[in-house]
Amino acid sequence: MASVFQPIPPRPAPVRTTGYVAWARANLFGDWRSTTTTIVLALVALWLLPGMAQWAIFQAVFHPSLESCQAARGTGACWAVVAEKYRYIILGRYPYDEQWRPVVATLLLMGLLGVSCTRRFWRPWLVPLWIAVLAGYFVLMAGGVLGLSKVTTDLWGGLPLTIMLATLGIVLAFPLAVLVALGRRSKLPAIRTMCIVYVELVRGVPLISVLFMASFLFPLFMPVGKSPDVLLRVLVGITLFAAAYLAESVRGGLQAVPKGQVEAAATLGLTYWQTQRKIVLPQALAMVVPAVMNNFIAIFKDTSLVTIVSLYELTGSLGLALNADADWRPYKLEGYFFIAAIYFAFCFAMSRYSLWIEKQVSVSRTR
Prior knowledge:
This protein is mostly helical. The protein contains 15 helices and no strands.
């Protein structure tokens, strides 16, 4: 009997796994629960967004006019308070005629951070560059040399102070945290006990109390006129507080490294520090990148607490700017939205950089 040709039915086209449609299908419409949640949130957004857009954009006042803000009060936002007080909010009480100095100093510091976060610039000359830029930052901010007028640290404020405290707090806390994490796993009882006491003591109190003790109680134990500058004391307090939390994140990574790798390093004749530097720490730190970045973001946001010791960073400068002018005080909400946007921009950039580091680490693991 002659065979009859039976064609195979066509297979369905492959589903795209990249692009916006694929992302929406996987994250917004993956199953009925996800689809329901997406639809409900979309309906809530459609209900709220028109009113928010009217208040924030269409009925808002942008030019610095107090009369226009009073006329639009209750119906539109008064972004004019930002246009009127932005220099005070961003730069604090720094002398008006010298405000180019904190602007240049902050740009130098942010440029240094950008260079340090770019892989192609991870070279030995990066350490001398850090020393040079930090020296230039403090020369510009403090003055007293090169013909610059002297400005005391109690007049520093705004965004330059926030970025400086966060940057130095992170840079100084991280190596200290690594040493403390290694100390907690040390076989020497004295070192292990000291590290445990330090971590548990610092993590058991809020940062406000640490800043309060550094600013007000520490000078009581020093000779009259010999107490360090309040900015230095606050920086030390932030560093010690941040290092305690970072140490626990690093210790978690150290515990996740298989013990067999340490034993293999010992059989190769590597010393303790060679083992930690070449074998253990690279793997441990790669495992805890998200936790470490969370701590970095927390340090950046916690700098707002230095207001209690009369160092007026970004949020403190906003309070000073509005409290000194009663006419603009009713529009404090718009000022805080402006501050929140600045904090969000920096924290979002840090989180995206964390994702980039995680991708680099995952690539190295798959090789």
